[in-house]
Structure formats: C-alpha cells, structure tokens
Amino acid sequence: MESQQNNLIKSLRIQPLIIVIRLEHNFFNLSKKKENLLSKIEKLSNFGIKNIEIGWDPNPEWVDLILEIKKRFKSINIGVASISSRQSLESILSLDVNYSMSQFFNKEIHIQAIEYNQLVIPGISNIENFKEAIDLGYKIVKIFPASKLGINFINELKDFKKKDIFFIGAGGIKSKNLKKFLKSGYDALVIGRELRNQTPDKDLKIWLKDY
C-alpha cells in the first residue's frame, strides 16, 4: 500500500483534482448511457483532467465497463468511488486500479483492503476515525463532507497528526472554490455532483490553465 499511496500523491501533486462520475439510473439497460459516459470522459481528458473516479455499481457488467475505460483512456489515472462493502471491494480486485475511495471509514473494509493490497482511501469525518486510519498505515485520507466540515476541522487534524498526511477534500466542493480550499490546507480536491454534467465550467477551465 505504501507505493500505491506514494504514486497517487505524486499524481495529485501534478494536478490536485479528481473528477467523480457516478453512473446514471438504469445505466446498463440503455446503450446510449454508456456512449454518453465515454464521451464525457473523453471531453474531460481533452480539457486536461488527469484523475477520474467512476462510481461503483453492483451490476455484473460494471467490471467490464471499468476495464474498457482503462484500456481506452490510458493517460487518465482511473479510480473507483464508493467502496464501502465486501462486495464492492472484491469486485475491484481484478481491475488493477491505482486507487479507490470509501465515503466513510469502515475499519473492517479497510483492513480487508490492505490484506488484498488495494488502496481504498478512507472517508474521514471525525478525529477518532482519523486516528484509526493513521494506525492502519494510511497517509492519504479523504475529508468528507469537506464543504460542511470546513477549514477548522482540517486544522484540528493537522494539529493532531504526528507525521505528514495528504488531505483530499470531497463533498459539496464547487469549481469556483478550488483555490480557496487548496490554500486553506487541502492537498487535493474531489468534484462530483457540484460540476454540472461533469463538464468543465468557466471556473474549472480557468483553474486548469495552471495545471
């Protein structure tokens, strides 16, 4: 897990942003939805986005979808969002993804992930879970929901930490606030539903010019 964490940190220092795309309702029942997803990823890639997470789905076809995306978009660092159950964890074992994330801290899932040599970044919303994540060997954590927990929470975590931790902020972050959050102590940020249709808006296009 150490090398996986180091590689992700290296990637996010180059561009401290991850775009999350969650599959639409009835995604696997309509072929047009898959075409729309691939088109969306292609547009993000053309705008220079380097890190994209795809939401996990229990449909058996989901694994093949991720494999296809990885094969088609080799320049993008593809990850998986919402790994919060044994089923979701086991479904990513064959995918060789560089990283995935959980919405909330689940010690049992994270211990299992470490045994499987899978980097499942824990979602943290309180200092107790933060301490547990550090004890498990995590040096990357996701603060969720960052927009509600605010800057004071990350400062509290930074006061406590005994070693360098890489903080990813997620939840309710808008593209117009990227600079503010990064200046306030976050090392990288995740944008999902707040980015309409997962298409770069004016603020994100301006921000991307620096990366």
Number of helices: 9
**Overall spatial form:** globular
N-to-C series of helices and strands:
HEHEHEHEHEEHEHEHEH
On the 0 to 100 scale, the average pLDDT is 95
Number of strands: 9
3D architecture notes:
It comes from Prochlorococcus marinus str. PAC1. The chain has 211 residues and is an alpha/beta fold. It has one domain (2-208): TIM Barrel. 44% of the residues lie in helices and 16% in strands. The protein is built from nine helices and nine strands. The chain has helices spanning 2-14, 31-46, 62-72, 86-91, 107-115, 127-135, 146-160, 178-183, 202-208, and strands at residues 17-21, 51-55, 77-81, 100-101, 120-121, 123-124, 140-143, 166-170, 188-191. Strands 3-2-1-9-8-7-6 form a seven-stranded parallel beta sheet. Helix 5 (107-115) links the parallel strand 4 (100-101) and strand 5 (120-121). The radius of gyration is 16 Å and the shape is globular. The mean pLDDT is 95.
Fill in the keyword field for this structure.
211 residues, alpha/beta, TIM Barrel, two-stranded parallel sheet, 9 helices, 44% helix, 16% strand
SSE map:
Layout: H1 2-14, E1 17-21, H2 31-46, E2 51-55, H3 62-72, E3 77-81, H4 86-91, E4 100-101, H5 107-115, E5 120-121, E6 123-124, H6 127-135, E7 140-143, H7 146-160, E8 166-170, H8 178-183, E9 188-191, H9 202-208
Parallel strand pairs: 1-2, 1-9, 2-3, 4-5, 6-7, 7-8, 8-9
